[in-house]
Amino acid sequence: MGLTMNYVEIILCLVAGYFCGCISSGYFVGRFFRKDIRKLGSGNAGTTNVLRNFGVVPAIITFVGDLAKAVVPILLIRFCFETQTYWYLLCLYCGLGVVLGHNYPFYLGFKGGKGIAVTSAVVMSAAHPIMIPVGLAIFIVVVALTRYVSVGSLFVAWYIPANTLIYHHGEEHFIHMMLISLLFTLFAYFQHRENIIRLIHGNENKLWKRK
């Protein structure tokens, strides 16, 4: 594959991923209730904020919608390029575009969610199958033990670098893949910077309170 084609494919994957990521499930669920989710609770158009403000069913709809907008384009890219050695790299770029679109949708003033649901979707679509149940189990256990969704989310942020390291080490584009994988983690921690500060000070909101 020539350098020109390489850059064209990367740009197309990023752009396609971004516009798919801009489909803000949380925002549209909020509009169904005639409210702007970005003006409620934490101000994020993500699953956790929808759960706290509208309940379980709207949160599930939001989560499934956020998964779908990442799973569909990434699976399409995987199907088209899986015979090529760089298919995983293109999936990562598409996933990165989805995360950027989810976090910074242009039509919502670049204010969206925190990208954890879509990061999980990238794992489900591009990662080795064993990473899905293992990652989900870790997330559930961490949230159950700490009662902090943010802590579980910060664990999720390491799924993609872990998958890249375990299953793609030694491949031709490994360093490139690893750098892009770590960007997912960087974006997740940046988006959760306020949560991290609250965790340090002990005033982070818990998912539920013990009676």
Write a structural description:
The protein is mainly alpha-helical and 211 residues long. It has one domain (3-201). The chain has eleven helices and no strands. Helix 4 (56-81) runs antiparallel to helix 5 (87-103), helix 4 (56-81) packs parallel to helix 6 (116-126) and helix 5 packs parallel to helix 10. The N and C termini lie far apart (60 Å). 41% of the residues are buried. Mean pLDDT is 86; it is low at 1-5.
Total domain count: 1
The coarse overall form would be: globular
| N- to C-terminal distance | 60 Å
Provide the low-confidence segments as ranges: 1-5
The total of beta strands comes to 0
Q: Report the helical percentage.
A: over 70%
Strand content: under 5%
Number of helices: 11
Sheet having the most strands: none
| Sequence of secondary-structure elements | HHHHHHHHHHH
Mean pLDDT comes to 86
Radius of gyration: 17 Å
Q: In summary, what is this structure?
A:
The protein is an all-alpha fold.
